[in-house]
Design brief:
oxidoreductase; four-stranded mixed sheet; about 45% helix; Butyryl-CoA Dehydrogenase, subunit A, domain 2; 10 strands; alpha+beta; globular; Butyryl-CoA Dehydrogenase, subunit A, domain 3; four-stranded antiparallel sheet; 12 helices; binds flavin-adenine dinucleotide
């Protein structure tokens, strides 16, 4: 594994760094610095800048709007975005349904849906999970019955992230109740403004509106919005989950997270010394950094495999487990570092709040981020399920 960047890669890194410095929206930076929740428009402002530059979908094939970057360039890109504290782009269109559409869709479906994903004009959500069907996804019960050129869809989805903003959703529905579980499922694209679609908020521990219930009552969906064959949606579902897990390790963002804790611990005092001089605190930071470095090398090995033409394998489960645990430890340590300044924000500091912030800026998001990050070991396939995958696929148990 070659760890040094080539001169061309260093030049690319400089190009990326300057582009971010010159183009990242100032108003977005201040919303982030003050610890406010981000609005749909905040997310889209950066998305549109990247779309205009042609850098919005680095992992896509060039023919569909990708950049043609190597795995190393994509690694540099994510490192630079994290180092500059840029907001992430929404994964539901770009990393999930987009690759499904260009891999399994018809030419008409590609022409109809891919441009809106790239431009940001269409905001997508993921309708997989149902009450009672999360880890055991293939037991899902939302059903679609054929009626001429349409399906009539009835059922309930849950934990649907950002569905309150969504123009479109990709849904797994049961089209053959008599087939074996995985064989009777289809993959439908549903216009979220269709009559019969209702989105109800679920407010999370940190006081945020990030997830929702989605109710589907007699929703009419044209058959030409089904991707791939009827009853073969599980093939698309599995393909998408492999894409969802790559990148979930979030190494670059975690490295930035550790740096931020160190900055806080240099400022916050423990008696007459900075917190960073406290041996117990320093030890926790060091343990975190050691584990993060080990994770980074595992990710680099996985990238080297990808560069050599190997697709994401069971190691993506390993990256997910370690990455998500590290993300949680970072938020725990950040909350510890800000101490009592974290307390006023146990229920967040939302859009439109006019309370005067208390304590330093870096304290505002510590508690909501701590609560919010409990999700990382659950979503994208819970960590227990990832351990099952490793037991089966790697250890052969
Ligand atoms: C913040 C957040 C956002 C989400 N966003 C979306 C979204 O946008 N779209 C979407 O479709 N879904 C979304 N999800 C749902 C997510 O995919 C599920 O929560 C996840 O798959 C777990 O399913 P569950 O919640 O039904 O828990 P369950 O499957 O009921 O699991 C409960 C517990 O039992 C354990 N468990 C279950 N089965 C096994 C087993 N076989 N072996 C060992 N342990 C097991 C689990 O690990 C877990 O600890 C989101 C979830 C969260 C928390």
């Amino acid at each position: 594994m070659q760890l040094e960047f080539s001169p061309e890669e260093i030049a690319f890194q400089q190009e990326v760094r300057s582009f971010i410095a010159e183009n990242y929206p100032e108003n977005l930076r201040s919303v982030q610095d003050e610890g406010h929740d981000l609005s749909k428009e905040d997310f889209l402002s950066w998305h549109r800048i990247l779309a205009k530059k042609g850098w919005i979908a680095p992992a896509w094939p060039v023919e569909y709007g990708g950049t043609g970057w190597t795995a190393t360039q994509r690694f540099i890109w994510s490192e630079e975005l994290a180092a500059a504290d840029c907001v992430g782009t929404m994964p539901f269109g770009l990393s999930m349904v987009g690759p499904v559409i260009y891999t399994f869709g018809t030419p008409e479906q590609k022409a109809r849906f891919l441009p809106g994903i790239l431009s940001g004009d269409d905001w997508w959500c993921q309708g997989y999970s149902e009450p009672g069907s999360g880890s055991d996804l293939a037991s899902l019960r939302t059903k679609a019955v054929r009626d001429g050129d349409d399906y009539i869809v009835n059922g309930q989805k849950t934990w649907t992230t950002m569905a309150q903003h969504a123009d479109w959703g990709f849904f797994l529905v049961r089209t053959d109740p008599d087939a074996k579980q995985q064989e009777g499922i289809s993959f439908l694209l549903i216009d979220m403004k269709s009559p019969g679609v209702t989105v109800r908020p679920i407010i999370t521990l940190g006081g945020e509106h990030e997830v929702n219930e989605v109710w589907l009552e007699e929703v009419r969906v044209p058959v030409d919005q089904r991707i791939y064959e009827e009853n073969k949606g599980w093939t698309c579902a599995k393909f998408l989950l492999a894409h969802e897990r790559t990148g979930i390790a979030a190494v670059a963002r975690s490295k930035r997270g550790v740096e931020k804790i160190k900055q806080i611990a240099r400022t916050e005092m423990d008696g007459d010394k900075p917190l960073l001089a406290n041996a117990f605190f320093k030890r926790k930071i060091s343990e975190l950094e050691i584990d993060l470095t080990a994770l980074e090398f595992t990710e680099l090995r996985s990238l080297a495999g990808e560069a050599a033409g190997k697709g994401p394998g069971p190691e993506s489960s390993l990256l997910k487990i370690k990455g998500s645990e590290i993300q949680q430890r970072i938020t725990e340590l950040a909350l510890e570092a800000v101490g009592h300044y974290g307390a006023p924000y146990f229920r967040g500091f939302g859009e439109g709040d006019n309370e005067h912030p208390i304590g330093p800026d870096y304290a505002h998001r510590a508690a909501p981020t701590y609560f919010n990050t409990r999700k990382t070991t659950i979503y994208g396939g819970s960590n227990e399920i990832q351990r099952n995958i490793i037991a089966k696929m790697v250890l052969g148990i």
